[in-house]
Input
Amino acid sequence: MTGVPASAAGGTGRPAPGGKLGSAAVNQASLWNIANILTMIRLVLVPGFVVLLLQDGGHDPVWRAWAWAAFAVAMITDVFDGHLARTYNLVTDFGKIADPIADKAIMAAGLICLSSLGDLPWWVTIVILARELGITLMRFWVIRHGVIPASRGGKMKTLAQGTAVGMYVLVLTGPLATLRFWVMVVAVVLTVVTGLDYVRQAIVLRRRGLAEERAAGLPGTVRQAAPESAGGSADEEHGASGASDTSTKGPAAGSAR
Output
Protein backbone atom coordinates (compact mmCIF):
# COMPACT_ATOMS: atom_id res chain seq x y z
CA MET A 1 0.00 0.00 0.00
CA THR A 2 1.69 3.19 -1.16
CA GLY A 3 -1.25 5.48 -0.47
CA VAL A 4 -1.15 6.75 -4.07
CA PRO A 5 -4.45 6.60 -5.98
CA ALA A 6 -4.58 4.25 -8.94
CA SER A 7 -5.14 7.12 -11.35
CA ALA A 8 -2.07 8.95 -10.06
CA ALA A 9 0.03 5.80 -10.24
CA GLY A 10 -0.86 5.30 -13.90
CA GLY A 11 -3.24 2.39 -13.40
CA THR A 12 -6.64 2.33 -14.96
CA GLY A 13 -8.45 1.25 -11.80
CA ARG A 14 -12.17 0.68 -11.58
CA PRO A 15 -14.73 3.42 -12.36
CA ALA A 16 -15.76 5.49 -9.37
CA PRO A 17 -19.11 4.27 -8.04
CA GLY A 18 -20.42 7.80 -7.78
CA GLY A 19 -19.95 8.73 -11.42
CA LYS A 20 -22.74 9.21 -13.94
CA LEU A 21 -25.07 6.99 -11.95
CA GLY A 22 -24.60 9.12 -8.85
CA SER A 23 -25.21 12.39 -10.70
CA ALA A 24 -28.35 10.95 -12.28
CA ALA A 25 -29.64 10.03 -8.83
CA VAL A 26 -29.00 13.57 -7.63
CA ASN A 27 -30.87 14.98 -10.61
CA GLN A 28 -33.81 12.68 -9.97
CA ALA A 29 -33.88 13.65 -6.30
CA SER A 30 -33.87 17.35 -7.20
CA LEU A 31 -37.09 16.82 -9.17
CA TRP A 32 -39.04 16.71 -5.90
CA ASN A 33 -38.27 20.22 -4.71
CA ILE A 34 -40.79 22.76 -3.46
CA ALA A 35 -40.84 24.73 -6.73
CA ASN A 36 -41.69 21.66 -8.81
CA ILE A 37 -44.26 20.49 -6.28
CA LEU A 38 -46.05 23.84 -6.59
CA THR A 39 -46.00 23.46 -10.37
CA MET A 40 -47.49 19.98 -10.07
CA ILE A 41 -50.22 21.33 -7.79
CA ARG A 42 -51.05 23.94 -10.41
CA LEU A 43 -51.31 21.26 -13.09
CA VAL A 44 -53.66 19.22 -10.90
CA LEU A 45 -55.78 22.31 -10.22
CA VAL A 46 -56.54 22.79 -13.91
CA PRO A 47 -59.09 19.95 -14.29
CA GLY A 48 -60.45 20.70 -10.83
CA PHE A 49 -60.97 24.32 -11.78
CA VAL A 50 -62.83 23.33 -14.95
CA VAL A 51 -65.12 20.92 -13.08
CA LEU A 52 -65.97 23.52 -10.44
CA LEU A 53 -66.60 26.25 -13.01
CA LEU A 54 -68.95 24.11 -15.12
CA GLN A 55 -70.98 22.64 -12.26
CA ASP A 56 -74.77 23.07 -12.57
CA GLY A 57 -74.49 24.56 -16.04
CA GLY A 58 -71.70 26.95 -15.06
CA HIS A 59 -73.90 29.69 -13.63
CA ASP A 60 -74.13 28.74 -9.95
CA PRO A 61 -72.53 31.54 -7.88
CA VAL A 62 -71.34 29.16 -5.14
CA TRP A 63 -69.61 26.75 -7.50
CA ARG A 64 -68.08 29.63 -9.38
CA ALA A 65 -66.75 31.04 -6.11
CA TRP A 66 -65.04 27.69 -5.49
CA ALA A 67 -63.70 27.77 -9.04
CA TRP A 68 -62.33 31.25 -8.39
CA ALA A 69 -60.57 29.94 -5.27
CA ALA A 70 -58.90 27.18 -7.30
CA PHE A 71 -57.91 29.71 -9.96
CA ALA A 72 -56.50 32.08 -7.33
CA VAL A 73 -54.40 29.32 -5.76
CA ALA A 74 -53.03 28.44 -9.19
CA MET A 75 -52.08 32.06 -9.85
CA ILE A 76 -50.40 32.39 -6.44
CA THR A 77 -48.36 29.22 -6.92
CA ASP A 78 -47.28 30.58 -10.30
CA VAL A 79 -45.70 33.54 -8.51
CA PHE A 80 -43.95 31.51 -5.85
CA ASP A 81 -42.61 28.51 -7.77
CA GLY A 82 -40.55 30.61 -10.16
CA HIS A 83 -39.25 32.81 -7.35
CA LEU A 84 -38.26 29.82 -5.22
CA ALA A 85 -36.59 28.06 -8.15
CA ARG A 86 -34.42 31.09 -8.97
CA THR A 87 -33.66 32.07 -5.38
CA TYR A 88 -32.68 28.62 -4.10
CA ASN A 89 -31.24 27.22 -7.34
CA LEU A 90 -34.04 24.70 -7.77
CA VAL A 91 -34.25 25.04 -11.54
CA THR A 92 -34.73 21.65 -13.24
CA ASP A 93 -35.52 20.49 -16.76
CA PHE A 94 -38.94 19.39 -15.54
CA GLY A 95 -39.65 22.85 -14.16
CA LYS A 96 -38.54 24.55 -17.38
CA ILE A 97 -41.07 22.49 -19.33
CA ALA A 98 -43.91 22.05 -16.83
CA ASP A 99 -44.08 25.61 -15.49
CA PRO A 100 -45.02 27.34 -18.78
CA ILE A 101 -47.39 24.47 -19.61
CA ALA A 102 -49.17 24.91 -16.26
CA ASP A 103 -49.38 28.68 -16.81
CA LYS A 104 -50.90 28.34 -20.26
CA ALA A 105 -53.19 25.48 -19.22
CA ILE A 106 -54.93 27.28 -16.36
CA MET A 107 -55.35 30.47 -18.39
CA ALA A 108 -56.57 28.64 -21.49
CA ALA A 109 -59.01 26.58 -19.42
CA GLY A 110 -60.48 29.72 -17.88
CA LEU A 111 -60.81 31.60 -21.17
CA ILE A 112 -62.32 28.70 -23.10
CA CYS A 113 -64.80 27.86 -20.35
CA LEU A 114 -65.90 31.48 -19.98
CA SER A 115 -66.38 31.84 -23.72
CA SER A 116 -68.30 28.57 -23.94
CA LEU A 117 -70.58 29.83 -21.17
CA GLY A 118 -71.18 33.05 -23.09
CA ASP A 119 -69.56 35.26 -20.45
CA LEU A 120 -66.60 36.29 -22.59
CA PRO A 121 -66.44 37.00 -26.35
CA TRP A 122 -64.64 34.31 -28.29
CA TRP A 123 -62.44 36.86 -30.05
CA VAL A 124 -60.87 37.78 -26.70
CA THR A 125 -60.02 34.14 -26.03
CA ILE A 126 -58.63 33.68 -29.54
CA VAL A 127 -56.44 36.81 -29.36
CA ILE A 128 -54.94 35.86 -25.99
CA LEU A 129 -54.37 32.20 -26.80
CA ALA A 130 -52.96 32.95 -30.26
CA ARG A 131 -50.50 35.37 -28.71
CA GLU A 132 -49.39 32.89 -26.04
CA LEU A 133 -49.01 30.03 -28.53
CA GLY A 134 -47.19 32.22 -31.03
CA ILE A 135 -44.72 33.50 -28.44
CA THR A 136 -44.07 29.97 -27.20
CA LEU A 137 -43.23 28.83 -30.74
CA MET A 138 -41.05 31.89 -31.27
CA ARG A 139 -39.04 31.02 -28.17
CA PHE A 140 -38.03 27.75 -29.84
CA TRP A 141 -37.23 29.69 -33.02
CA VAL A 142 -34.60 31.89 -31.32
CA ILE A 143 -33.52 29.73 -28.38
CA ARG A 144 -30.17 28.82 -29.93
CA HIS A 145 -29.31 32.51 -30.22
CA GLY A 146 -30.25 33.44 -26.66
CA VAL A 147 -33.12 33.97 -24.25
CA ILE A 148 -35.30 37.08 -24.16
CA PRO A 149 -35.68 38.10 -20.50
CA ALA A 150 -39.07 38.75 -19.00
CA SER A 151 -40.04 42.39 -19.31
CA ARG A 152 -42.07 44.58 -17.00
CA GLY A 153 -44.78 44.73 -19.67
CA GLY A 154 -44.95 40.95 -19.76
CA LYS A 155 -45.37 40.78 -16.00
CA MET A 156 -48.10 43.42 -16.13
CA LYS A 157 -49.80 41.43 -18.89
CA THR A 158 -49.80 38.28 -16.78
CA LEU A 159 -51.19 40.17 -13.79
CA ALA A 160 -53.90 41.83 -15.88
CA GLN A 161 -54.92 38.55 -17.52
CA GLY A 162 -55.11 36.71 -14.20
CA THR A 163 -57.09 39.52 -12.55
CA ALA A 164 -59.51 39.84 -15.46
CA VAL A 165 -60.17 36.11 -15.83
CA GLY A 166 -60.57 35.78 -12.09
CA MET A 167 -63.16 38.57 -12.05
CA TYR A 168 -65.04 36.95 -14.93
CA VAL A 169 -65.11 33.63 -13.08
CA LEU A 170 -67.00 35.29 -10.23
CA VAL A 171 -70.65 36.23 -10.71
CA LEU A 172 -70.43 40.02 -10.55
CA THR A 173 -73.05 42.67 -11.23
CA GLY A 174 -73.26 46.44 -11.28
CA PRO A 175 -70.06 48.50 -11.03
CA LEU A 176 -67.90 45.41 -10.48
CA ALA A 177 -69.13 43.93 -13.76
CA THR A 178 -68.20 47.18 -15.50
CA LEU A 179 -64.82 47.19 -13.80
CA ARG A 180 -63.97 43.67 -14.91
CA PHE A 181 -64.81 44.64 -18.49
CA TRP A 182 -62.22 47.41 -18.44
CA VAL A 183 -59.67 45.19 -16.71
CA MET A 184 -60.10 42.71 -19.55
CA VAL A 185 -59.67 45.53 -22.08
CA VAL A 186 -56.36 46.44 -20.43
CA ALA A 187 -55.35 42.76 -20.45
CA VAL A 188 -56.07 42.41 -24.17
CA VAL A 189 -54.17 45.61 -25.01
CA LEU A 190 -51.15 44.51 -22.97
CA THR A 191 -51.35 41.07 -24.57
CA VAL A 192 -51.13 42.51 -28.08
CA VAL A 193 -48.53 45.20 -27.30
CA THR A 194 -46.18 42.89 -25.41
CA GLY A 195 -46.61 40.23 -28.07
CA LEU A 196 -45.52 42.62 -30.81
CA ASP A 197 -42.60 43.79 -28.68
CA TYR A 198 -41.54 40.18 -28.13
CA VAL A 199 -41.62 39.55 -31.88
CA ARG A 200 -39.42 42.61 -32.42
CA GLN A 201 -36.92 41.45 -29.79
CA ALA A 202 -36.90 37.94 -31.22
CA ILE A 203 -36.13 39.20 -34.73
CA VAL A 204 -33.33 41.45 -33.43
CA LEU A 205 -31.88 38.61 -31.34
CA ARG A 206 -31.94 36.19 -34.26
CA ARG A 207 -30.31 38.69 -36.63
CA ARG A 208 -27.61 39.41 -34.06
CA GLY A 209 -27.04 35.70 -33.50
CA LEU A 210 -26.72 35.01 -37.23
CA ALA A 211 -24.34 37.96 -37.60
CA GLU A 212 -22.17 36.64 -34.77
CA GLU A 213 -22.12 33.19 -36.36
CA ARG A 214 -21.00 34.68 -39.68
CA ALA A 215 -18.39 36.80 -37.93
CA ALA A 216 -17.09 33.77 -36.07
CA GLY A 217 -16.52 32.07 -39.41
CA LEU A 218 -14.45 34.96 -40.87
CA PRO A 219 -11.17 34.32 -39.00
CA GLY A 220 -11.02 30.78 -40.40
CA THR A 221 -11.42 32.16 -43.92
CA VAL A 222 -8.66 34.72 -43.32
CA ARG A 223 -6.32 32.09 -41.94
CA GLN A 224 -6.88 29.86 -44.99
CA ALA A 225 -6.15 32.75 -47.33
CA ALA A 226 -3.03 33.79 -45.40
CA PRO A 227 -0.55 31.51 -47.29
CA GLU A 228 -1.59 32.98 -50.64
CA SER A 229 -1.50 36.61 -49.55
CA ALA A 230 1.60 36.33 -47.39
CA GLY A 231 3.66 34.49 -49.98
CA GLY A 232 6.40 32.45 -48.38
CA SER A 233 5.75 33.64 -44.85
CA ALA A 234 3.58 30.63 -44.07
CA ASP A 235 6.17 28.24 -45.49
CA GLU A 236 8.86 29.99 -43.48
CA GLU A 237 6.75 29.54 -40.38
CA HIS A 238 6.33 25.81 -41.07
CA GLY A 239 10.02 25.56 -41.84
CA ALA A 240 10.93 27.26 -38.60
CA SER A 241 8.66 24.99 -36.64
CA GLY A 242 10.05 21.96 -38.44
CA ALA A 243 13.57 23.05 -37.59
CA SER A 244 12.58 23.55 -34.02
CA ASP A 245 11.06 20.08 -33.88
CA THR A 246 14.21 18.56 -35.36
CA SER A 247 16.46 20.41 -32.95
CA THR A 248 14.45 19.43 -29.91
CA LYS A 249 13.73 15.83 -30.87
CA GLY A 250 17.20 15.09 -32.22
CA PRO A 251 18.26 12.47 -34.76
CA ALA A 252 15.61 10.04 -33.67
CA ALA A 253 12.91 12.44 -34.79
CA GLY A 254 14.59 12.91 -38.13
CA SER A 255 14.95 9.18 -38.74
CA ALA A 256 11.36 8.66 -37.85
CA ARG A 257 10.40 10.75 -40.82
